[in-house]
Amino acid sequence: MSIGHTLLALLEAGPRHGYDLKRAFDERFGHDRPLHYGQVYSTMSRLLKNGLVEVDGVEPGGGPERKRYAITASGITDVSRWLAQPEKPEPYLQSTLYTKVVLALLTGRGAAELLDRQRAEHLRLMRILTDRKRQGDLADQLICDHALCHLEADLRWLELTSARLDRLARTIGAPAQPGRRSVPSQEAPSV
Asked: Domain Transcription regulator PadR N-terminal, which positions (predicted)?
C-alpha cells in the first residue's frame, strides 16, 4: 500500500493535521498495522517537498506547532493517476514457503511436516479472519474476504505441493528421507 497516496487521498476531503490523518488512516486501513506518527510526519514532509501538499495553517500549542495540511492540484492529479493504475499482481507471495520446502528436502528435513504445520497455521488464521468478518462492518468483511481468498489459494498450493513432494525431491536431487509420506506418482490436478 502506498501510504503517501493514501494520505493524499484522505486530504481530498479537506485540510487535516497529521494526528487527524493518522486517525483516519488507522480507522480505515490500519486495523492490523497502524501507522506510527513518525511515518505520517515524514511522509507529509516528503509530500510537501514534492509540491503535492501545502501547509494550510499553523497553530501554536504546548509543544511543537501543529501544521494543517491541504492537498494541492498536483496532489489531486497524482492520486487520480495512482488510482487509475492497476496494481501489479503478486504471483510469488509464498516464495519463502517454496524456498523452505526445497531446502527442507535438500537438507533431509521433513518437508511434509513443514507443509502440515503451515497448513495448520493457515487454517488458524482463516478461523480468526472468519470470526472477524462475522463481527465486522462491510469494509472489514471485504478486507477479510480478500485475505481469505489468498489463504484459500495458498492452501490449494500446499495440497498440490504435498502431493508432489516425492517428485520434487527427485527433481532437485534431494537425499531420500526415511519415513517420508509416499504419494503415488500420479500427478495432482493441474491448475
From this structure: 7-76
* In a domain? residue 89: no
Give tens-digit pLDDT for 113-149: 999 999 999 999 999 999 999 998 998 899 999 999 9
Helix (H) or strand (E) holding 117: helix 111-135
* pTM beyond cutoff 0.70: no
Walk across the sheet containing 53-59 and list its strands.
16-17, 66-71, 53-59
Do 13 and 76 fall within a single domain?
yes
Q: How many CA atoms lie within 13 A of 191 on its CB side?
A: 8
Residue 33 belongs to what domain range?
3-84
**Per the domain annotation, does 20 fall within a domain?**
yes
Q: What is the CATH number of the domain that holds 29?
A: 1.10.10.10
